[in-house]
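Why does residue order matter? Because the sequence determines the fold. Keep that principle in mind as you read this record.
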Amino acid sequence: MNKLFTLFFLILFSFISINVIAQKEYQQTRFNTAKETNFFIISENVKKVLLDERSKAITASEKESIEKELIQFGRWQYYWKDFVNPNGSFQPIA
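Structure:
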């Protein structure tokens, strides 16, 4: 029984530590690339990926799922277009 508890806590600890490391890496890359990305670049890249996925979709459920993602992304674009500077950079949060 002790071996089982030890194994459980060892696995739990490894998952938690991996998550913490991944979170730190994400934050570092987010701040490093935030200056290079803007609304227009994000829109162009996401649109390319979604349209590529739509062309690769085989089943009806896959096609429906991709269409829903395109609609949701369109909503994101519509919402954020008012908060973007003319050069595409996002306005700082006050």
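Residues 1-36 form one domain.
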